[in-house]
Amino acid sequence: MAELMENEVVRAFSTYAVIVVVKMLLMGPMTGYYRFTRGSFSNEEDVARKSAEEKKKLLKTHPDVERVRSCKSTKMAELMENEVVRAFSTYAVIVVVKMLLMGPLTSYNRFARGSFSNEEDVARKSSEEKKQLLKTHPDVERVRRCHHNDLENIIPFVIVGLLYALTGPELSVALLHFRIFAGARIFHTIAYIGALPQPSRALSWVVGMLVTFSMAYRVLNTVLFL
């Protein structure tokens, strides 16, 4: 990660990504400012302490407030109405959640197999117990390797998949890519954790990688600018 952040292109991207995200976040306070200065609220609880007459005046829209709100939400709303983007979001969440579950699974195996890697994890144990617990175990290492493989494959899928979704592919083709990748990664985890005979794990890994390469080709073929 340290080497990655030394890359000037990555640093440039990080800089401008933060700029536009902060700009987007500032639209919230700006909306609040216009609501108070223009006396325009949308929720009953926002004017709960006002009289009935004042509520009628305050619970209304105002063009300045709506302008700021539309600036903030229109593009995102339009994006989320795109069926390909919604499909990508669904399958991206599925594989990311699957990847996140590898952490608890690693912890479970550490406790179940009595295998720890840090001194503080066994600080209250005796010296003899520490020697027995501070060791590796093949089951723990297998889950860790599976988790590491997820990181190497799912993160590129999320990045490339988002760019792919924005190129406007056919929904049926996009769904095929997303479903195959999700299925391949789920099967890869089952094959890895269950120690299924090869080439089951290797094939699922290759299939997932080919899907990512296919999407990357579409992105480059659509927006390549050198």
SSE layout:
Elements: H1 2-5, H2 8-38, H3 52-58, H4 63-81, H5 83-100, H6 102-113, H7 127-133, H8 138-166, H9 171-193, H10 200-223
The CATH homologous superfamily of the largest domain corresponds to Membrane associated eicosanoid/glutathione metabolism-like domain
CATH architecture of the largest domain: Up-down Bundle
Strand content: under 5%
Number of separate helices: 10
Shape by Cα distribution: extended
N-to-C SSE string, H for helix and E for strand: HHHHHHHHHH
Low-confidence stretches: none
The SS-based structural class is mainly alpha
Which percent bin holds the helix content?
over 70%
Instruction: Tell how many strands the DSSP assignment holds.
Output: 0
Name of the level-1 CATH class of the largest domain = Mainly Alpha
Distance between the termini: 26 Å
* Alpha-carbon Rg, integer: 25 Å
Number of domains: 2
Membrane topology: Multi-pass membrane protein
Enzyme class: transferase
Transmembrane segments: 12-34, 84-101, 151-167, 202-220
Family: Belongs to the MAPEG family.
Features:
226 residues; mainly alpha; Four Helix Bundle (Hemerythrin (Met), subunit A); 2 domains; transmembrane helix; EC 2.5.1.18
Task: Tell me about this structure.
This protein has 226 residues and is mainly α. The protein has two domains: 2-81; 83-223, Up-down Bundle (Four Helix Bundle (Hemerythrin (Met), subunit A)), CATH 1.20.120. It has ten helices and no strands. The longest helix has 31 residues, at 8-38. It is extended and about 75 Å long. The relative contact order is 0.08. The model has no long low-confidence stretch (mean pLDDT 80).
